[in-house]
Structure formats: structure tokens, C-alpha cells
Amino acid sequence: MSYQPSPSNHDGNDDHRNRRLYNPYQDLKVPAQTLYKLPTSPEYLFQEESIAQRRSWSENLTYYTGIGYLGGAVLGAGKGLVEGVKASEAGDTMKLRVNRILNASGHSGRQIGNRAGVIGLLYAGLESGMVHIRDTDDIINSVVAGLGTGALYKAAAGPRSAAVAGAIGGITVGLAVTGKQVLKRYVPI
């Protein structure tokens, strides 16, 4: 597939046509078009990993804790921004207002982020435990983990608060899992 320059009509204008093109893959005996066709599906080291369609317990723990902390920190920073703007006074300098907003955002973000991270940690641990005990992965595990997370999170506030928080957690997780199933079914991604 090498291009041989013709000796005739060699002038400066068609210099690009008279050069031999270099193909770095010519000695590989592999078509260059198929050289970089990488698989799009995940590759597994062991066959058992391909059967399980879920994260491991440690991945689950890291994922839910991280998502909880990050989401809570962002929401808390937004709440702190509003509080910082409301707390500014008429005689404040711009530097003082910015400082007040940053302090309020950092304080609320850290506080809500830590709470949401703990909730994510509890939920991931309970859900992974339920999957291990029941040896199946379905909506019941998620809802029971949500119930248990809410109840454990508010257990120190008393049994009534724990029951209410457990109900809120179970309902929230049930709605989230149902919404996810509806999205999977009706939204092509």
C-alpha cells in the first residue's frame, strides 16, 4: 500500500502528492482500522464477577458514603450561602460580607455533609448485610435498609423519633428505587 512518486511533472505545487506515506502499522500485519477497537462492555478477571450485577459491599460503602457527604456538603454550602447573605449588615465591607458567607457556607456544608455521609454509611452497611443474609438482591433489601437507617440514625432521640425516621427512610428509599426502575424501563439510556 505504498505510494510511489512518479518522476514526471515534479514541481513545487504538487509536492504533497509525490511523497511516500509512512504507515507505522505495515509490519504488524493487522489492519489499522481494527487495531484500536476496544470492547465497550466491562471485562472481568473471574467469571463469577460477571454474573453479579451489583457493586461489592466495600464499593457500596464507599459509594453511598461519598455521595451522601458530597451531596450534603453541596446542599449545606447553599444553605450557608443564604444564611450568610441574610446575616450581612448594611455597614459591612465587601471583605466582611464575603468572609461571613464563606464561614456560614463552610460550617453548614461540613455539618450537613457529615450527617448525610453517616446516613449513607449506615444505609450501605445495612443493604449489603441484607443482600448477604437473604442471598438475593431486590427492592425489599433496599426498603428494609432504609427503615433501619432512619431508625438507627434517630435511635438516640427516643423510640418515637426512631420510628418516624425509620418510616421516612423506608418510604424515601422505596420511592427512589421505584423511580429508578421506572426510569430504566421508560427512558432509553
TrEMBL record:
GO BP term, example: protein import into mitochondrial matrix
Keywords: Membrane, Transmembrane, Transmembrane helix
Bias-annotated ranges (Polar residues): 1-10
Pfam families in UniProt: Tim17
One GO cellular component, as annotated: TIM23 mitochondrial import inner membrane translocase complex
InterPro entries the record matches: Tim23-like (IPR045238)
Region spans: Disordered: 1-20
Protein's UniProt name: Mitochondrial import inner membrane translocase subunit TIM23
Protein's organism: Lactuca sativa (Garden lettuce)
